[in-house]
Amino acid sequence: MNATRKQNVPTKTTPKKSSDPVKPTAKVKRKSVEKAGAAAVLRRSSPAPRVLATELSLSVQWGEELDSLQPRPVSHTQLRRWVTCTLPADATSTPTAAFTLRFVGIKEGRALNRDFRHKDYATNVLTFPHAPTDVPWPPGMPRPVGADIVICWPVVLEEAKAQKKAWMHHLAHLVIHGCLHGQGYDHETEQQAVQMESLETRLLKRFRIADPYTTHD
């Protein structure tokens, strides 16, 4: 290190005068490294704030019309991943959630849509929240989260084919869509639709699924 200095190097150690500029020495550098190392140890030893995850109860049902679907086309594990991604990151306000996913055929799907929405055809997904999602909730009290979600399997396949997308991707979208309805999201107004569709797109991106609202030529 001394070989690179332009000024003459003394042959013996001499004390610096107070007017001499202070230059970093190996000793100072070692202290800096020691301090940095100590800080790193403290960061490692200090536990990160614990974020509680929402406790999820998930039931999956297959209607009688789908008895021949063996093995089931989608696993309980995969369905649980899709449902879980819609839950709040911090369970402080949502300690528990309970969802039922029921896959049905055309007959049952049409009957449910007719009886509850007065529309005489089978639709892709219906959501029946366990508790009202459009009423004020007492401050400080956890709002119960959950819903019965009905997905018409033949409609899922038909729509995926028409939209030229993988049926698994379309199913993921419908599951997420139904779960968000069960947590109070809606698309009755333009503002609501933008918010909900934006959230759906972000959640689907975690699974490398493209924006479902883009046009498929």
* Helicity, as a percent range: 25-40%
**Range of strand content:** 5-15%
What class do helices, strands and sheet pairing give?
Answer: alpha/beta
Q: Strand arrangement, largest sheet?
A: 1-2-4-3
Number of discrete helical segments: 6
Mean pLDDT: 80
Briefly characterize the structure.
About 40% of the residues lie in helices and about 15% in strands. By secondary structure, the chain is an alpha/beta fold.
Describe this structure as you would to a colleague.
The chain has six helices and four strands; from the N terminus they run αβαβαββααα. It is of the alpha/beta class and 217 residues long. The chain has a domain at 55-131 and 144-205: 3-Layer(aba) Sandwich (Collagenase (Catalytic Domain)). Strands 1-2-4-3 form a four-stranded mixed β-sheet. α2 links the parallel β1 and β2.
